[in-house]
Amino acid sequence: MSERPTHKFRLYVAGDSPNSVQAMTNLKVFCRKHLPDQHEIEFVDVIREPRQALSERVFLTPTLIKLSPGPMRRIVGTLKDSGALREILGLPPGLEV
Amino acid sequence: MNQPPPDDAGDEIARLVLTLQETELRLQELTGGEVDAVLLPAGKFYLLSEAREKLRQSEEKFQQLADTVSDVFWVRSPDMKELHYVSPAFAQVWGRSVESLYATPTGWTDYLLPEDRQSVLDALAKFVHGGSGLDVEYRITRPDGEIRWVQTRGFRVREKSSG
Hints:
The complex is a heterodimer of chains A (97) and B (163).
Chain A: E1 7-13, H1 18-34, E2 39-45, H2 50-55, E3 60-61, E4 63-68, E5 73-76, H3 82-89
Parallel strand pairs in A: 1-2
Antiparallel strand pairs in A: 1-4, 4-5
Chain B: H1 10-31, E1 37-39, E2 45-47, H2 48-68, E3 74-76, E4 83-86, H3 89-94, H4 98-103, H5 114-128, E5 133-141, E6 147-155
Antiparallel strand pairs in B: 1-2, 3-4, 5-6
Helix pairs in contact in B: 1-2
C-alpha cells in the first residue's frame, strides 16, 4: 500500500481456532470489497500475546477493534454478519454479495 | 459432595461435571457460539475447544465408571441434601429407581432398618459438620422385602476456586 491507510483494524484471535479463522477471512473479504487499498489489519494472537489483549481489555476472541477512523469501536464474533462492520464504519446498509 | 472412588474419579471429574458443563452452557448462551477463547483471571486465555475436549473425556470416563461399576456412587452437595448425580447401580442395590432418589434426595434414609437408622444419621451429621470422611454400614429394606447390608463411604471434594 503506497497511500496511508484510512481504516485501521486490530483483530484479536486465538491461534487458528475456527471462529478466529472465520473472523479473519470475513474481515479480509469485507475490506477488499468495501475499502480496497485504504485499510490495514493487524492480527494479534492472544495465546502468544495475552498481555496486549489484557492492556486493551479484550476478554474474548475473536474481537475486532476499529482503531481509525475514530471513534474506536469493537465487535466480538466471527463477523459473519457484515451489517455490524458496516455499522461501526458508518457505511450504509448495502446489498449483501 | 461425596464420592467413593477417590483416585479414579477424583475431584477433577466432580468439579468438571458440576462446573464446566454449566460454564460451557453459559458461555454458549452469552456468545452465540462465536467465541474461541476467554480470558481467565490468571491473565491467560483459555481455548473453549480445549475445555470441550476435556469435558468430553471426563464425561466419558465418568460414564464408563458409572455404568460398569456395581457399586453405587453419587455426588451430593456439602450438606448432603442435594443430589447432583447417582449412578445406575442404585436401582440394582436398593431396588428403587434413580428417579425416585432424584425426586427425594434425602429419602434414602427412610429405607434403613429402624435399629440402624440413628447411627447413620449421627455419622452423616458429623460428616456434614466437617468430618473428614464418612464410612457407615447399615441394613436396608428393599420393596420386595429383602434386607441387604450396605456400606456407604463419603469423601469431600473441594472446588479449587473456593479454596
